[in-house]
From TrEMBL:
Gene3D superfamilies: Bira Bifunctional Protein, Domain 2, Nucleic acid-binding proteins. The lineage of its organism: Bacteria, Pseudomonadati, Bacteroidota, Sphingobacteriia, Sphingobacteriales. This is Asparagine--tRNA ligase. GO terms for biological process: asparaginyl-tRNA aminoacylation. Residues 132-468 form the Aminoacyl-transfer RNA synthetases class-II family profile domain. Pfam families: tRNA-synt_2, tRNA_anti-codon. Its EC number is 6.1.1.22.
Length: 478
């Protein structure tokens, strides 16, 4: 295997006048002389200087935007402006041609919509290179955070027979023979038989299985893909997204909030340190985008300032009931009212309400707790008031809900009673209820929507732009 030096390392090299081999894709080629080459290790390109007078003109013609090259040459201190080092080429090999007439990615600014249609090639742009390096760092930091604290990474199943959230938003998993689909007596498709004779679906959450692990290993987390069959075309929802779900035995809701806040701050700080240049690039991108908006809609802080602000301030903690009182008294601005007026206690908050609390009222991340039991899942611990549960949602500026979690109902009688009230079959979840039968204990956990975190840290506006291969209604080609 041939040696190559990554462009990031070359650009940081203290040594010059050394022979190097560099490989990458052409971002630009000007004056038949200067190639901007990128290999994805950094947003910055290395400049390759071509001795065009002594280079075969046929080869020069093949140095086009998008072509893959292998270059041997000498790393020297750059004579030109804009870079500290450059490579004077002694040998250029074209590894893969790229027809400039057909290659969709040109050295100019493309719209995000255009790049979404060319998602198979969008990795080759500066913006998407930065996004996916930041995403990688955040994923690594999540593992590092939990591993440093002695959590066990537990792999929960993708195929399951349960609907952890009880919201009925599941994708069936089927191995039906399409020519011989089993039917019920009344002639409908018999989904009860879809997976080797059993009804199954793709998981909406690893929580219930995660709780089984926590009731023995004490501190666990999951980090895997989850699936929701909600037909929503929003900038915050995907049909397939990644979720991080810690579950901790003996934790109560306050411990749970502390863990979530610590984790969010840890991973954001990690990305800020590790990907300083990418975040700087994304900050500039967002600042440019903001300039196209009317003055009163522009963000008061840059992306970098927003991230630093999040690290340096405690999240605001209050109950759902306190939030409703604030919202009842508020209008989003002098003229406008909420599209969904907050009339009374008990209704779920709309995203406009969440964003008002975070962006206008408190101007910082907010943790709302103790929601009405009617709008939350069956497994949350019931408060003594008989009306609310030990739930927590973390709301972030520009994002809305980023984390959903709770202290769990560890009392068997209360849990069974709530499941019966909500029509959740206790016999199907017998294995889950066993944790409450044998050595039950207080415990708590939460789910962090990974793409919503990546949205926040990259300052992007659409969740489809922060996952390499977005899945949303009618989109699953590659
Ligand atoms: O609030 P959710 O539905 O909570 C659960 O699934 C719990 N079982 C988690 C737990 O306690 N272990 O989802 C958790 C988070 C949300 O706060 C949101 O960030 C994200 O997952 N999320 C989505 N992200 C992208 N697309 C979707 N369709 C999402 N639905 C939820
Ligand atoms: Mg939720």
């Amino acid at each position: 295997m041939s040696q190559r030096t990554k462009i990031k390392a070359l650009l940081q090299s203290q040594q010059t006048e050394i022979d190097v081999t560099v490989k990458g894709w052409v971002r630009a080629f000007r004056s038949n002389r200067f190639i901007a080459l990128n290999d994805g290790s950094t947003n910055n390109n290395i400049q390759i200087v071509v001795d065009f007078e002594n280079t075969d003109p046929a080869l020069l013609k093949r140095i086009t935007v998008g072509a893959a090259l292998s270059v041997e040459g000498k790393l020297i201190a750059s004579l030109g402006k804009g870079q500290t080092v450059e490579v004077v080429a002694t040998e250029i090999e074209i590894l893969g041609d790229s027809d400039p007439e057909k290659y969709p990615i040109q050295p100019k600014k493309h719209s995000l919509e255009f790049l979404r249609e060319n998602a198979h090639l969008r990795f080759r742009t500066s913006t998407f290179g930065a996004i996916f390096r930041v995403r990688n760092s955040l994923a690594f930091a999540v593992h590092q955070f939990f591993q440093e604290r002695g959590f066990v990474y537990l792999h929960t199943p993708v195929i399951t027979a349960s609907d952890a959230e009880g919201a009925g938003e599941t994708f069936h998993v089927t191995n039906f023979d399409l020519d011989n689909i089993p039917k019920t007596e009344t002639g409908e498709i018999d989904f009860k038989q879809d997976f080797f004779g059993r009804a199954t679906n793709l998981t909406v959450s690893g929580q219930l299985e995660g709780e089984l692990g926590a009731m023995a290993l004490s501190d666990i987390y999951t980090f895997g893909p989850t699936f929701r069959a909600e037909n929503s075309n929003t900038t915050r929802h995907l049909a397939e997204f990644w979720m991080i779900e810690p579950e901790v035995a003996f934790n109560d809701l306050v411990d749970n909030m502390d863990l979530a806040e610590d984790m969010l701050k840890y991973v954001i700080k990690y990305a800020l340190d590790k990907n300083a240049d990418d975040i700087e690039f994304l900050t500039q991108r967002l600042t440019e985008e903001e300039k196209t908006k009317p003055q009163n809609e522009r963000s008061e802080m840059t992306l970098l300032e927003k991230l630093q602000f999040c690290l340096n301030n405690d999240f605001e903690r209050l109950t759902y009931t306190e939030a409703i009182d604030i919202l009842k008294e508020s209008t989003p601005n002098k003229k406008k009212k909420f599209a969904y007026p907050v009339e009374g206690w008990g209704t779920d908050l709309q995203s406009e309400h969440e964003r008002y609390l975070v962006e206008k009222h408190f101007k910082k991340p907010v943790i709302l707790t103790d929601y009405p039991k009617e709008i939350k899942a069956f497994y949350m611990r019931q408060n003594d008031d008989g009306k609310t549960v030990r739930a927590m949602d973390i709301l972030f500026p520009g994002i809305g809900e980023i984390v959903g979690g709770s202290q769990r109902e560890e009392r068997l009688d209360k849990l069974e009673q709530r499941m019966n009230e909500m029509g959740i079959p206790t016999e199907e979840l017998w294995w889950y209820l066993d944790t409450r039968r044998f050595g039950s204990c207080p415990h708590a956990g939460f789910g962090l929507g990974f793409e919503r975190l990546v949205l926040f840290v990259t300052g992007m506006g659409n969740i489809r732009d922060v996952i390499p291969f977005p899945r949303f209604p009618k989109n699953a080609e590659f």
